[in-house]
Amino acid sequence: MGFFARVRTLVFGKANDTLDRMENKIPEPLLNQYIRDMDVSIRKAHEALVRQMAFKVRIENSIKEAEGQIKLRLRNAEDALGAGEEDLAYRAMSDRLVQEENVGILKVQLRDAEEKLMEFNNRLTEMREERDRMLRQKDQIVARSHYNVAMTKMDTVLRMTSSDSAIANFDRIRDRVENASIETEARLQVREQYRNSGNKAFEELARKGTVQKQLDELKLKLQAK
After folding, report:
1. Sign of dihedral through CA atoms 142, 125, 52, 106?
2. pTM of the model
3. Which of 156, 151, 150, 148 is nearest to 23 (CA)?
4. 117 contacts: CB under 8 Å, gap ≥ 6
5. Is residue 149 domain-shared with residue 202, that is, in the same domain?
6. Is 73 in the same domain as 171?
7. Residues whose CB is less than 8 angstroms from the CB of residue 42 and which lie 6 or more positions away in sequence, other chains included
8. Do 73 and 176 belong to one domain?
9. Three-state secondary structure string covering 135-151
10. What residues make up the domain containing 76?
11. Could you tell me if 143 and 28 are in contact, meaning their C-beta atoms sit under 8 angstroms apart?
12. CA-based, 20 to 30 A from 42: which of 19, 157, 206, 220?
């Protein structure tokens, strides 16, 4: 394989690979371009149909003209014979025969033209129907493509970070916070119990002091008697 052939193969290979990636990831611009290409093809097909219709009309006009010449040459031959001009009548009949042969050829061409005209018309109808189908399905294809891209990204994220491990880490932090809350509550309760027990000791001591004081006062009162 020559150098330029290899370069051409490389360029087209990369271009096709790029188009494939675009079709898989962001197909909307390509779909729009394909629809525009279809519009161009439809316009060219319509122009071909118009040309074929014009060609058919020209053949029909030629047939009418030739048939008119056939009738005219017949009258010319009759007039020439009536005037005793047999040579002139012969030329008129010869020309009439040429026109008849021409009509036969033109009718064959007309039949072919009508067949091609029908073929062009059917093809144009099919192309328009295909374009309508492309327009109807474009939004659905784009939506499905966006969905596929989103699911691919989600799958990539899930492969990088398993949902199970994420749930486990979440639960681990929740348990840690709950355990810390339980420990804090326990420490507060212990502290409160310690504070309450100290207060009771002081209250008991104060009560005993009051009782002792009252007892001493009672003893002094009895001695005074």
Report:
1. positive
2. 0.53
3. 148
4. 49, 52, 53, 56
5. no
6. no
7. 124, 127, 128, 131
8. no
9. HHHHHHHHHHHHHHHHH
10. 3-160
11. no
12. 19
Residue 152 to residue 164: CA distance in whole angstroms? 19
**Count of residues making up the chain:** 225
Dihedral, 184, 187, 188, 190 alpha carbons, nearest 10: 160
* 68 half-sphere exposure, CB direction, 13 A CA radius: 6
Judge if 64 and 129 occupy the same domain: yes
**CATH number of the domain residue 102 falls in:** 1.10.287
In this structure, which amino acid lies at residue 191? Answer: R
Label residue 117 exposed, middle or buried (CB < 10 Å: 0-12, 13-18, 19+).
middle
Confidence of residue 141 (pLDDT cuts 50, 70, 90): confident
- pLDDT-wise least confident of 18-32, 63-77, 128-142, 162-176: 18-32
